[in-house]
Amino acid sequence: MESSLETTRFSIPEYVLRGGQRMPVLGLGTASDPIEGSELVIKLAVLQAIKLGYRHFDTASLYGTEQPLGEAIIEAISLGLIKSRNEVSITSKLWCSDAHGELVLPALRTSLQNLKLEYLDLYLIHWPLSLKKGIEGVSGNEEYHIFPMDLSSVWAAMEDCQRIGLTKSIGLSNFTCEKLADILAIAKIPPAVNQVEMNPFWQQKKLREFCHENGILLSAYSPLGAIGTSWGSNRVLECEVLKEIAKAKGKTVAQVCLRWAYEQGASIIVKSFNCERMKQNLEIFNWSLSEDDLKKINDIPQSRGYRGEEFISQDSPFRTLEELWDGEI
């Protein structure tokens, strides 16, 4: 079904975060694994997304997409697609090599410089661990050292980032219930968001409940199973249960997955640079899943897609997957 630009624009609900900040339910992700195309591809995709009505964009220092995202926002303003930067919500993330108390603020300033922005709407700690300073990535071909994160100093620095206005909200990514509890025990400003893998094959029921009880919005990445990445698969989009629901609804499997996540109270980060799929991904707010649909999805066997095995070693603070995920695997 065709959706006009105006209709699409006004059909995206917003969540109100802790502290009163508003964030659109559905955001466009800019991570690619492997890297997809050039910076121009990213920029053009973001511009197209803005035309379609997207107002929430997710990036990270690790992704290498901050600069083209920032350029797209500047161009969107100059073209009159949006009136000002205030009309969009921008999330970025602190990479593990900067997850040291004294490096947090400089890392955020670098992200802002890349984005050509004065502030972020949301800044997240990307993973609950620290890498040796200066190591930008994790690869089996590179020597790197993983350390336990000094939660107290890193979170205090994140709080400072919010206090001085460089980000409106702060939060976490890939944190389990136990690790979230560790942050909550020391936080003066509690996290507003926890961004984690979530889809019908990894529904995060325990974590969703914990976040809800503690006023933390759970944000879903890889809501379609991260097909096309080095670690993702087509198990979500090729699931017969989901195909049957989609056929009965006259929807795509992707739309069923996104609607399901929305009905669970999560915000959603979905990545597609295909114009038609970007449009379809927005068309999830004027229909609903039945109780029978939800039961069928609830009964899908569960297993984590992204396991984080590159963070596991005998020299790491996490020697097993069970330790990294606190048994939530």
Give me some keywords for this one:
single chain; 329 residues; alpha/beta; eight-stranded parallel barrel; disordered N terminus
In a nutshell, what does this entry contain?
With 329 residues, this protein is α/β, with parallel strands linked by helices. The protein has 12 helices and 12 strands.
Secondary-structure blueprint:
Blueprint: H1 5-10, E1 14-16, E2 22-24, E3 26-29, H2 39-52, E4 56-58, H3 66-78, E5 89-94, H4 104-115, E6 120-125, E7 130-131, E8 146-147, H5 151-163, E9 167-173, H6 177-186, E10 193-197, H7 205-213, E11 217-221, H8 240-249, H9 253-263, E12 267-270, H10 275-282, H11 291-298, H12 321-324
Parallel strand pairs: 3-4, 3-12, 4-5, 5-6, 6-9, 9-10, 10-11, 11-12
Antiparallel strand pairs: 1-2, 7-8
* Tertiary shape: globular
- The tally of beta strands, per DSSP, is 12
Report on the biggest sheet.
Answer: 8 strands, parallel, barrel
Q: What is the string of helix and strand elements?
A: HEEEHEHEHEEEHEHEHEHHEHHH
Query: How many helical stretches?
Result: 12
Distance between the termini: 38 Å
Strand order of the largest sheet: 3-4-5-6-9-10-11-12
- Which percent range fits the helix content? 25-40%
Mean pLDDT: 90
Strand content: 15-25%
- The SS-based structural class is alpha/beta
Cα-based radius of gyration, to the nearest Å: 19 Å
Low-pLDDT runs of 5+ residues are 1-8
